[in-house]
Input
Amino acid sequence: MNERTAVSTPIKYQLFTEFNKKEKDKIAEIVEVNHKEFYIAPTVENYVYATTRALDFGDFHGTLNKKALWEHAVNKNADLFNYDEIMAEHPVRKIARYLTFRTAGIFLNHQSNNPEAAIGLAFDATLVMEPYEDMHAVLLFGIDKMKSPGVARTLQTYPTRVGTSMGCSIKSSSCTICGKEIFKDSDICACLKHNRGSRLKGKKVAELLKDMEFYEQSVVTSPACDTAYVIDAISEIIPGRLLKVATDDLQPILSIMGTIYNSIKEAKTIQDKKRLSNQLDSLIYKLEKMI
Output
């Protein structure tokens, strides 16, 4: 079976990841192993690190929720990534298929045919599952500051203006309307051939991708997935540094928590400390419910 290639070129939820020594060492090992293959800098200090929304995905079969929401996740190419498929185990690597991002290179405008064109590496991927209406994958990656100083400088200055786009190989796909299995371009059904991206029988006509393996994430001007933009970036990967993984709606809560925490330290009476502690506990509970 011939592989086909799919290329695709924010929310009410926020997570943070903290780099500890173990994580830094893991990233350093990935850089060391891959720098010769991709012809990039060999040490972690030469990179700008960032997170990006790599792709949106839906719940076509209603595996997670009987609502079976998916149309919002169809990208501009009328391709659909579905929860069941990205969670399926890769037959060789024995990991969920979305985790194949861990060996992806970072490129400009999908110039991934030549490893020397790589400008960085992907290190890890995670899924944001809530809210259900906006599920997506987030990618942690690094850009070589020496090899692509322009992209690195933009990430340091205006990170959220940087669009990204994934590249993956697929074994097959199916039509969201008629369900026909597609193994090669000549298998494309009439639904997709004539109505791709529009609506038919009350549903969006799209190609549900299957058996994928992610091999690249590119920096692009206009991503096919409207939400696929960088979320956050940092210049140094140092233990204890926090990197934003999803968006800003929790930032007001975190800011208030910081203010209350400082007020507790400065409070002069036990009563004030207890009152402020109760407020902090309430916010922590709210935060836990959201995450």
